[in-house]
Amino acid sequence: MNKTVFFIIGFVFIMICACNPDRIRPNGRLTIPDFNFPETIVFEQNLSAYNIFEGNAADLIPASDFHLVELSSILFTDYSHKQRLIKVPAGTKMTKQNDGTIDYPDGTIMTKTFFYQNDERDSSLGKRIIETRLEIKENGIWNIATYLWNQSQTEATLSLDGLDTQVNWVNAAGIPRSTLYHVPSQNECMTCHQSDSEISPIGPSLRNLNRLVERNGTNLNQLTHLQSIGILDDFDITQASRIVNYNDPTASLSDRGRAYMDMNCAHCHNPDGWDYATERQFDFRYETSLAQSGILFEEDKISNALLDGEMPFIGTTLLDEEGVSLVIEYLDSL
Question: Taking the CA atoms of the chain, what radius of gyration do you get in angstroms?
Answer without folding.
Answer: 20
